[in-house]
User: Fold these one by one.
Assistant:
Number 1:
Amino acid sequence: MLDLSHVRKSYDGGLTHAVKDVSFAAEPGELIVLLGGSGCGKTTTLKMINRLVEPSGGTITIDGQDILGLDPVALRRTIGYVIQGAGLFPHMTIAENVAVVPKLLGWEPARIRPRVDTLLDLVGLEPGDFAGRLPRELSGGQVQRVGVARALAAEPAIMLLDEPFGALDPVTRDSIQSEFIRIQSEVKFAAVLVTHDMTEALLMATRIVVIRDGLVAQIGTPEELLNHPADDYIETLISTPRRQAERLDALLPGGGA
Amino acid sequence: MSQALRDLFADLPYLLGGHLLLSLSAVLIGVLISVPFGALATRHDRLRGPLLTVAGLIQTIPGLALLALMVPLLGGTIGFLPAFLALTLYSVLPMVRNTVTGIMDVDPAVTEAARGMGMTSRQTLLGVELPLAAPVIIAGIRTATVWVVGMATLATPVGAPSLGQYIFLGLQTRNWTAVIFGCVFSAILAVVLDQLIRALEISATTRNKRMGILTLSALALVAIGGIAPFVAERFGERPTGGARAGDLDASGAPVGLSSARTVSIGSKGFTEQYILSAYLESELRAEGADVSARPNMGSTILFDALRSDTVDVCVDYTGTIWATLMKRAEPIGRSEMLIEVAHYLKKEHGVICVGPLGFENAYALAMRKDRAAELGIRSIADLARHAEGLTIGGDPEVFGRSEWKRVRAAYGLQAARTRGMDSTFMYDAVRDGQVDVITAYSTDGRIAAYDLLVLKDPKQAFPPYDAILLVAPGASKLPGLLDALRPLVNRISNTAMREANRLVDLEGKAPAVAADSLRAKR
Ligand SMILES: Nc1ncnc2c1ncn2[C@@H]1O[C@H](COP(=O)(O)OP(=O)(O)OP(=O)(O)O)[C@@H](O)[C@H]1O
Ligand SMILES: [Mg+2]
């Protein structure tokens, strides 16, 4: 349903390119992970999908329609967006934050209220306790859950997530990751998730798009990447989680050589 | 409480109300201009620079000058409008600046989230940026409020009633209690408004509805309660007028003026004019007229107001009109000047000169008697020999006038240094030796009291300055007004005026008391 074809982006009128040539597709229920080092063009690629950044070339289509032919504001209301660092509105309560897009879409208040409660439940926050709080009264992990709930609010067909689980302790992180996968298995949206954490990519992705210097270095399922890394760079990237897994394996009873 | 203090309090409701109305409306309209323009400037880089520069430039114009400039810009209108416009312009800078910085400082991640969710630029502004910038914008509104309340005291010379009346009148009549009184109440007003706006902000950020409603009610109470007495006195029924008309009916005197509209008496900002204003006020009241005073106006502002019927009656001086309005410089006899001035006023401006009051308040150079004897100076001609190194103090207005230029040229005083100061201070300055000579007013009581010598003017370089009673074109058609004023012609002698001035300047009496002394001497 979502299709990027030879997309590129230059911020300086063509002198240099933040994104040089990126192509991939995502179907409903799929989770595509964009993986790569800092500054390689992950966020830029993501923002071109909801037109926060206008592509310099290539085409992006949703259900076969070129997004450049759509009204950007209307387009964004159909795409869930979880921003790097959550980006909650500090002057709004948690309930108001989650209700932003439904309100923009003109939903009845009677429809919004139960929806907010459902979403807060979905991301593991007790509505009675959290709905009336302000973002500054939440922990980092809770803020990121609200970010996800807000993006899911209007039942988008596509979710874009920019390092949604960064800066979390491993336990919280693990639980949000599994919750997210559970939610997606229920709601079946197509998701594009940015990370530079290979372990996260391997555990969550349907397919991984490795980006280096604005170019796609490899696309494949986690198994394909683990078994057939395209080059030395990807080999190094996956070597760390692989080594950690082997060491853990050795520690576990019944495992090891 | 002393009588003096009681007198000050008697005017407080009216002046405080005028001050409040002026300040609040200026800040309110200022907000309605600044916030939208500031917000717009965050969207358009090309608007931002010029907007902030213009607002900053307005701020560099001295407050008094900005107020004064509004009068000619509005074609001679005085009173609320020019003061309101000047204060509104003045309030714009802190509010525009804070709106721009407040919005630009909103976390970009938050505005991007807003855009990313599908908010339009307008929705982002209203729903996200303005609420988040509110504390900074409100800080700007508070700054503007404090500035405007302070600057509203300067609205007195353009004819807008404000607490500045205490300060200007106090300065001119050496009534320091009045000056402090005006300052204290203007400061209290600034602090109260500032704190109320702050409370409003706190209740908004803490989402405390009860506190918000309480603060809003308090603000409304201050605004309405403060402005009401002013509006009532300015536009409402005047119970005193009716009572007076009744008195006169009982005595069988002709009611004449009482049925006509309110007569406004304008005056300039120095002691003699305060006294004459009070004098005219009580004379017209006695004739059954409803009277309001517009004191403390600048010289040209007063004449513009008279010409345009904003003010009905005032006292001016022949030499002043000769020099500043008719732009004439040649010397001329006292009665010829009177005739020519009256003719000119009628023909060019439709202003009626009822006649001279009887005394002359001429400019004269004066210096300490002992100093004059020491240097062997008796006339302005003698002064010329010592011009080098002499300092002449005087009202800044004097040194810009053609009479002064003529005196300077006629006697060769070019080498003397001039030093502008408020006329109330110049007598003390010459007595204490801070300046050598002053451009004194011949009716001032301090000439005799300070043992000053008025230098002879053998070349008659200073023109005559007969005080004349003027009536605006519209008011001259009011039934009974001219008849009521005619008996005042030629009734005040030089000595009587000097004595009245002395009562205020040296004995600290109220202008109204001195006015009574003028009536008593008639
Ligand atoms: N608005 C912009 N103007 C100019 N250059 C930009 C802009 N946004 C990003 N860039 C540049 O484009 C390149 C790619 O940036 P991008 O934000 O896509 O990286 P990223 O892969 O998301 O990195 P990170 O992991 O650090 O978030 C970087 O070199 C960055 O400096
Ligand atoms: Mg990024």
Number 2:
Amino acid sequence: MGTATLEVPVTQKTATSARRIKVEIRRQASPDAKATTETFEIPYRPNMNITSLLGEIALNPVDVSGRETTPVTYDSNCLEEICGSCAMLIDGKAMMACSALVDRLLGDKPDKTITLAPLSKFPVVRDLAVDRSVLFENLKAVKAWVPIDGSYDLGAGPRQQPQIQEQRYPLSNCISCTICMEVCPQFNDATGFVGAATIAQAKLFNMDPAGSVLKEERLRALAGDGGIQECGFAQNCVQACPKQLPLTEAISDMGRDVFVQQVKDFFTR
Amino acid sequence: MAAAPRIIVIGGGLAGLSSVIKIAEAGGTVDLFSIVPVKRSHSVCAQGGINAAKDLKGEGDTVLKHFDDTIYGGDFLANQTPVKNMTAQGPAIIDLLDRMGVPFNRTPEGLLDFRRFGGTLYQRTAFAGATTGQQLLYALDEQVRRHESEGKVTKYEGWEFLSAVLDSNGICRGICAMDLRSMEVRTFAADAVILCTGGIGAIFGKSTNSVVCTGSAQSALYQQGAYYANGEFIQVHPTAIPGEDKLRLMSESARGEGGRVWVPRDKNDKRVAKTIPEAERFYFLEEWYPKYGNLVPRDIATRAIHRVVYELGMGIDGQPMVYLDLTHIDRATLNRKLEGILEIYEKFVGDDPREVPMKIFPGMHYTMGGLWVDFEQQTNIPGVFAAGEADYSIHGANRLGANSLLSCIYGGFVAGPKAMQYAKALPAQSGDGGHAAEIARQKQINQGLLTSSGTENPFRIWRELGETMTRHATIIRYNAGLAEADAKIVELLDRARNINLSDKSQWANTSFAFARQLFNMLHLARVVVQGAAVRDESRGAHYKPDFPDRNDEKFLKTTKVSFVDGAPKIEFEEVDTSFIEPRPRTYAATA
Ligand SMILES: Cc1cc2nc3c(=O)[nH]c(=O)nc-3n(C[C@H](O)[C@H](O)[C@H](O)COP(=O)(O)OP(=O)(O)OC[C@H]3O[C@@H](n4cnc5c(N)ncnc54)[C@H](O)[C@@H]3O)c2cc1C
Ligand code: SF4
Ligand code: FES
């Protein structure tokens, strides 16, 4: 060819069939507006994911009955399941939209309708976008950081065995998607439960040699109402977490540490 | 100034967060603006690692070699003073990140582990699994959260920077921003502003960048009088996974850990990759560049793949794809060192790269160009600083792998203290500092968009822009194609004025926000295209077959573009070469 072009290929050749994907989307214009449902049909291409499907709707926001509507509001950024933005209910299941592949969702039922809805445990902002700032507030409450002296040059940090890194790294992969909170039966207004992600992050920083100076404060923050005791061991979190965090292990380790701390505090305070 | 300086930082990627930390530490107050919650910034996508010459592998690496590799890799276009400073600070920056708790990979003795990346012969890249950017961003995010809980930082997440507020002397007095939920537009006062808004991938439609990397903020500032420099230098990463909505990166670390790039020697070979014997595979990078092999710099690998596919017609199955093969490395090693990126391939393509060679093709990845800044990270607008991918300062004509994360943190660490210093010496503003005028201007733009009753869909215009830019302004450039692209962008700008928003509501209206960004993308696209058109030479990532050689006499110069009468105006500036004499850049046998 030898031309100036950089043609962008798709991994498989585009199918020419007029196959269409049916998708039903829960819409809500604002936090207190009534929720409605709209159905769309989108031309099928192999290797589509849910975010590219939503992109197609934005290009041509017309529903299945030919009625003009608005592009769907949803959160996304990285499109490769690392920023944690795009969690939503896909066919009723909490998943990341960017890594949810249409072919896989349809399986052997190409005529199936895919349903999209916002996460149910967080206030809806609009359509599929919800407000998940509660997680960031919880991270503040457990002081999920290493209290370094300062950012000036203090030389190398302490040596650390690779085994410590291998334990900490999986916990540090949490993308703050809040799926573990969405699927947890205990995560609701009645309990005020902080949720698995926050507990796992508290463990991560307690394991850091320097971060552990705040260990007791973190444990105290996780004691009492809304703390680790609310966990009912349903284990939904560990199954739903897109990053496979060892959440139940983190919760039981931290549960033990919180208990020990409470006993200590009982006798010394 | 009696009160503590009030600084606005725009963008919460690595560059933004590192400047916030420095300012908070020095006693300043920060308002931090970001479209996405800062923890979801594009920096999380970085996989491979971060460079610093700590020489923990007994190879005799030094910061001066890192300096030389960076300058040479950038084909001598970078100003040498800031690069020298950055490489000198590299080891201290890694130590700091380590102290912040970044789970860097370790050697058995408990020291930091390093791997090799492109464009160097040393193992200089520290890494945290295959998610280094994510781990670094989180470490800085945690520190900023700590300052936030102490009241030194206020976050405005979900707010988009629209423009700078300039007083009658052209001095920056704050910013104008829009709440992406309520769509409220207001101005915020500040003594200095630091723009850390990242890359511009969206101008090319599909790229390896995140959705919000539109370059809209840089473009808005350029349209207000800031210089944009070296815009024509666009890095196309050799190994991306072609996809429907995005080109997902396959990190250079795959080659750093021994990945090999090849195609069948016989272009009609239809056998399954694994059954093709060694002798019948064409490892073209290893054959053409025996010294660096698969780890030649990105521009060179990209053009080699382009040549194999389009000139030699040797793409796999006649398609624009080549193999990136890891299957000769054992599973345990792959899982330990590359799991994160292998999962991406598995997740989005469906094949296991431990068993089946990956199919990859180059994709737009990074902009070396950006807002012009001096050696203290200040733009030509007094009081506006820039850092990170949004500035042009470090990478010259081509960026070396794993140098960006370092340059982001370095840039933030310079910009923060310099902005403080500037703010302390700033005389008080007269009048309202330009706030009322700026808010009126922005509201008028919004009104125009909301009432426009044309026929154009902003997403459609964007798609056409992406196709045009990818076709004419990436790997190989011809002046005729660039002229065509510029004409097309002008046409798109025209059509964009005839937009019809299907959504005119004033609550979380994403297409409205996007339409605003689209104008800025179009203006910035012209900067890229016109810069490329004028530069009749080949240097680093910028390659013109009609001018295949580097021409130092004419073009060892920084391109500086200003916005005059609604169009780019180009001028050139001398490059600082005070330490290393420019020499020919060749990665062949005897580099
Ligand atoms: C897939 C991939 C892998 C990479 N791997 C590596 C690697 O291994 N090593 C390496 O050194 N480099 C790597 N890079 C490059 C590197 O990741 C980026 O250059 C770097 O992260 C940019 O950081 P930043 O702080 O400049 O901007 P970003 O992290 O992009 O942050 C930009 C911030 O600005 C905000 N923002 C943007 N516009 C506005 C606006 N108008 N108003 C308000 N806020 C705004 C965003 O919300 C965000 O917070 C990689 C890049 C990609 C795409
Ligand atoms: S622990 Fe898993 S599910 Fe929970 S927020 Fe983190 S990544 Fe998401
Ligand atoms: S868009 Fe980042 S996780 Fe889906």
Number 3:
Amino acid sequence: MKILVPVKRVVDYNVKVRVKADQSGVELTNIKMSMNPFDEISIEEAIKLREAGVATEIIAVSIGVTQCQETLRTALAMGADRAILVETVADVQPLAVAKLLKAICEKESPQLVILGKQAIDDDSNQTGQMLAALLDWPQATFASKVTVTSGMAEVMREIDGGMETIEIKLPAIITTDLRLNTPRYATLPNIMKAKKKPLDVMTPETLGVDVTPRLKTLKVVEPPKRKGGVIVTDVAALIDKLKNEAKVI
Amino acid sequence: MAILVLAEHDNQQLKPGVTNAVAAAQKIGGEIHLLVAGSACSGAASAAAQVAGVAKILVADAPHYAGGSPENLAPLLVGIAKNYSHLLASASAYGKNVMPRVAALLDVAQISEIISVESPDTFVRPIYAGNAFATVQSTDAIKVITVRATGFDAVAATGGAAAIENIAVAADSGQSKILKQELTKSDRPELVAAKRIVSGGRGMGDGDKYRQVLEPLADKLGAALGASRAAVDAGFVPNDYQVGQTGKIVAPELYIAVGISGAIQHLAGMKDSKVIVAINKDPEAPIFQVADYGLVGDLFTLVPELTAAL
Ligand SMILES: Cc1cc2nc3c(=O)[nH]c(=O)nc-3n(C[C@H](O)[C@H](O)[C@H](O)COP(=O)(O)OP(=O)(O)OC[C@H]3O[C@@H](n4cnc5c(N)ncnc54)[C@H](O)[C@@H]3O)c2cc1C
Ligand SMILES: Cc1cc2nc3c(=O)[nH]c(=O)nc-3n(C[C@H](O)[C@H](O)[C@H](O)COP(=O)(O)OP(=O)(O)OC[C@H]3O[C@@H](n4cnc5c(N)ncnc54)[C@H](O)[C@@H]3O)c2cc1C
């Protein structure tokens, strides 16, 4: 079976972003970009399923600007078999991403789409659930363990009170949580090989999807700053502050 | 038009975020209804009827609503959505699982984790791990929203007297089945609702030391226990302890961070706490930049000393 893995190019998780002076968004020029960390986990899980003989082909998909090709090459170097870029400079919001992915699913007929539970830039945590709705497929979000057997997936999920294990019928959507696996690094020979793997470029127009944003961003501002406090000398001083200054104990 | 809030519950009681979501609905303005979907959930329905400011409780009671499966809940919500201008849920694992699915079926955007209501169509939400706040305006007819509990002071859980109405249940999708749940048992307050939190990081060393050092302090303070991702990944504590960008978002009156360095992903989950205390042996640790009170030194001496002195 085929597995589709959407991978998003985002600001690297180590970068502390700065809001633009004109409040139109965050500064993205000359900023290090990487694959969304959850999507590395998705790729790793897909590779494990191929190594286990469950999957036969892994297709990485990214939606965005030309430079998303770098993200796709990383996915190919990790082990994906081929890649698709849906190229656009538009502000593609989760619903539009889900519609584009649906169009690709209709072409490729994967049995499993593995997405990250959230992208660390926009923090929406929506795309997988939306894609599941559009395809009318079951969803297993926040996965921390995945087992695939004939026509079914058993998924352990991280929920607010602990863990839950569900069984879903394939084809299905899975979104990955942090503790599902530890993604492998791409080795140099694999990075070289990845350059020769196929990468198709499409557009929202050729897929027949309207990506007009439904949310208008009116402004982006810095959150209120927390004032740094004081270093207290000892436990007695701390208790005094908590009792008499902060009045929280 | 009226506003519908999807109420998370365990069939008996409501979960903490519901009253915050109702508070957000009040800011939007309009008659507020709560949807209680569950299995043998009349206890939760009566609890919902007491929430202040709510006009009506809709109850959908059927075995296939037991585990909150999004495949079943989304069509239920979509079936009644036309009566509402806004559909809200708290931004818990439950709400995040269901609401995007509802939005996609309605062909509208979903607005994640709002922290403020500017007008009925304009909301503020944090992006980039809370390092920027975006004000977004929805152009859709129905607004589907998840509410970050820390952004809204909860309405009273009692004092209301809403009417309870049973609604038609939709068919079971049969797409998904819960095999088992392993819920962390604890007598402590729930992390997201706690007034005080004691949180431990990699500096705790291991799970035994985490418990030996932090549990007595949490007991003294009546606090919930939390953790950094590093502490969860290393297996010191279960996953539901994780505070941060990709864990739980908390804002207690007092947050004590012990052996936590203060990575941006951790700060994203706790920097709205009223008072932050950091205990760390490294005076350069970034956690001290957000802490109101910092104590530099070995946590294995300082925490027991603090516990004894309280
Ligand atoms: C040119 C441009 C301008 C933008 N301007 C703004 C702006 O002004 N304000 C603002 O808030 N946002 C802006 N965005 C961000 C955009 O709105 C978000 O990418 C979108 O909302 C998706 O949210 P998310 O990534 O948080 O989704 P999530 O639902 O958190 O993502 C979950 C998963 O979905 C998949 N996925 C999501 N997006 C993609 C993708 N593009 N390709 C492949 N897989 C994907 C991944 O597997 C990911 O792990 C802009 C984006 C672009 C490209
Ligand atoms: C995609 C992604 C999502 C993430 N999401 C989250 C999240 O939701 N929540 C989260 O917390 N992290 C998250 N992280 C991880 C985050 O980047 C940090 O790695 C993590 O928070 C570090 O945990 P820590 O502070 O416990 O460990 P460390 O950074 O290793 O810090 C340990 C601290 O303990 C101190 N210490 C050690 N021994 C002692 C002692 N005896 N006495 C006193 N102090 C001591 C040290 O000085 C140090 O400051 C995420 C990362 C990624 C990439």
Number 4:
Amino acid sequence: MPKPGSRDGQAFRMSRRKMMKGVAAVLGALVLPEKDASASVWEAFFQKNFRELSRPELEKVIARLEKEYSGRFGKAVKVRATPPIEGVLYGYGLDLSRCIGCRRCAYGCIQENNQSRDPQIQWIQVLQLNKERGVDLEEAELYYNPAKVPEKGHFYMPVQCQQCERPPCVKVCPVQATWKERDGITVVDYNWCIGCRYCMAACPYGARHFNWKKAGLPAAEMNPETHYLGNRPRPVGVVEKCTFCIQRVRNTPGRYTACVEVCPVGARKFGNLLDPESEIRYVIENKRVFILKEDLNTRPKFYYFYAT
Amino acid sequence: MNMERARRAIVPAAAAAILCLAAAGVLAAHPQEAPAGTAGAASTHVPHGPQFAVPKPPFSPGIFPCSDCHKEIRPNPTRRELKDEHTDIVLNHAQGQRWCLDCHDTTNRDKLRLASGERIPHEESYRLCGQCHGDKYRDWKAGVHGKRSGMWNGEKQYLLCVHCHNPHDPAFKPLQPMPPPVRPENIK
Ligand code: SF4
Ligand code: SF4
């Protein structure tokens, strides 16, 4: 061990300092934006976590994103950051005695939420189940494709993010890029997500999806009404999922989610769990209701029910 | 209460619906018969509980008003199979227990008829269906049976039972599903 202050020690410290500089330079070359990258790339690189942004910082970020998206898609793209409505906790109902498995919801969701068409990402997955087996996920068929649905002897169970009250996806995120908002919606800050996909492994419902490639999203089909935490165009290499159409439902008045509106049989119900007059409360109080994988104690706010 | 709340939410919608209906010419042909159906919600004395904002009933093209043809024809109240007109309608809805004039009014051909004898416009046909299907009617009023669109915390649009269920053959018809997702091994 060289004594501090000795020539050897000096030499050691010097070389360590040099080495650290070298390491920093190499790392920098690897991950930092290039020297001639535009200012907005640098701004994006140093952007804080959404929850730490001050009002003016947020406004700057949104202006930058709107400019970027509007340029990319050739139309005026709006990015909102509408906060939760006080006194609202969103809940969802899905009537298994009505759903016919037509998948209109899965495709309606893609349109509303700007998912990649190719390579394909779907936030809603409709499972075909056997009536005799009941909700037996081992038996579930995702790729059914008959000429007409429903098929005899089967029922259908669409699965999407259950907006868990105790979301395991949030618990495992090493950088807190995903969290539960006050209105119960679990969101992702796509600019903070590092793409480690721990949350995908933790989610018991297969509700999270990783975008491996640049989204195949035709400009003409791009929905320009977006929310920062929802359907805005996502950068490559992040995780995305259903947000109960945060860009719609946080407004007053706020539209029903796209899947509620597109379902031809009216199997989908949506509303405020804290409002005793809401449709979702009517469902919970009057129908046979269950939550998926109740034993995991994730406490979904997505209620499957049988109206008859 | 649920109903009270629903009623408050749909008052402006009802007004809009009336305008639409008038514009579509449905009510324009019989303006004197219009108000009972859709204007009820806005008036102070609501005769039969809340009214609902619904789109125009899905009549077959050119069929309404029924009186256009029926005013020339004397009603025949004898139960029978129709041989000359409306032969495209095959009743598949408790056909052993009823026929046309159990739901369609004999004297006012543009109205429907409740078991009580009360005549109602087609815009209120849910009351007719609700006579037998009380449980569905209750769920429908709460926004739980059938599709509702609009604002989850504001104005909502209902559909009539007959927008999804053909009253003469009410079972929901199977649909072609959208394509299945691409299997992961085929995603490039
Ligand atoms: S659109 Fe409705 S009926 Fe069709 S699969 Fe989705 S929930 Fe089921
Ligand atoms: S369903 Fe999955 S993604 Fe959604 S909150 Fe629960 S654990 Fe997270």
